[in-house]
Design brief:
This protein is mainly alpha-helical. Helix content is 76%, strand content 0%. Its main location: membrane.
Length: 279
């Protein structure tokens, strides 16, 4: 009996506190905020969402396994994600002998790895872009990088649309608020604004990929901005990959000629946005 009285008193106290908060703010939403804050301490992804992400990882793993099984019998200990220029040069030296005889397998393997890295925001895609230039030349290399980068960004977009909302709110709350406000203010010229973001380092590309579906950027706008916006940086990086042996660090990618080219292309790309903002 005493336990029931104590429980009733506790429930009444909670009800009184919630009533006080509601009356003080004049809105019922204050109660929801309290509940959401208590949930934010938990892991941001549910079991089902983790299962979806795991299924995507498994799909990419199966694709890589199929490519690996169709390659000739050899020692593939050199196959790993490059983390520096030394790793990249070793990978390039080994893959050059395979590219001419097993072009399809190398292309498919390259695409799967690049898209996987883009989908799950794994650093190191700059080395993959350098590798494309070293193995396939400028024009084919740029086409390959633009295709894989766009496909990876699109994969990240749809995966984030499905399960990414709690993760984005947990990792980048301030950036997400800024991005949402900017998108809302520029709905009439959203493509120009997204092009501006892709060409300039205002926001990281990985964040744009994950946050765009959360702030309701339409996929067709996201797609066209990605395809066009990544061309300048892809050209600079792929062209540098041709002279991979001469690079001492990633910072050597941007010489004066590369910077001038990137600036001119970027200027043409963002001019509509600048004109629209001025008006």
């Amino acid at each position: 009996m005493e336990g029931e009285v104590g429980t009733s008193s506790s429930m009444a106290a909670v009800a009184d506190s919630l009533k006080y908060e509601t009356q003080g703010d004049g809105k019922r939403g204050s109660v929801v905020v309290v509940v959401n804050e208590s949930k934010s301490a938990k892991f941001p992804l549910s079991f089902w969402e983790i299962g979806v992400a795991g299924g995507v990882v498994l799909s990419y793993a199966l694709g890589l396994a199929c490519v690996y099984l169709t390659m000739p019998a050899s020692d593939y200990s050199f196959l790993k994600l490059p983390r520096n220029l030394e790793d990249l040069q070793i990978l390039r030296d080994h893959l050059e002998s395979y590219t001419s005889d097993y072009t399809v397998q190398v292309l498919v393997g390259y695409c799967v790895v690049y898209i996987f890295m883009q989908t799950f925001m794994i650093p190191g895609t700059v080395f993959m872009s350098l590798l494309a230039g070293s193995l396939f030349g400028v024009f084919r290399g740029v086409a390959l990088v633009v295709f894989t980068a766009t496909a990876g960004a699109s994969s990240c977009y749809f995966l984030s649309k499905l399960i990414g909302r709690p993760l984005v709110f947990s990792l980048w709350p301030d950036k997400l608020t800024f991005f949402r406000d900017q998108v809302a203010r520029r709905r009439t010229r959203l493509l120009n604004y997204m092009l501006f973001l892709r060409v300039t380092p205002t926001l990281p590309n990985t964040f744009i990929n994950v946050a765009s579906p959360i702030v309701d950027v339409p996929y067709h706008t996201f797609f066209f901005a990605t395809v066009i916006g990544i061309i300048p940086a892809a050209y600079v990086t792929v062209r540098a990959g041709i002279t991979l042996g001469e690079l001492q660090s990633v910072g050597d990618l941007y010489d004066m000629h590369s910077i001038a080219t990137l600036f001119l292309i970027g200027l043409v790309t963002v001019t509509p946005t600048l004109i629209g903002n001025k008006n």
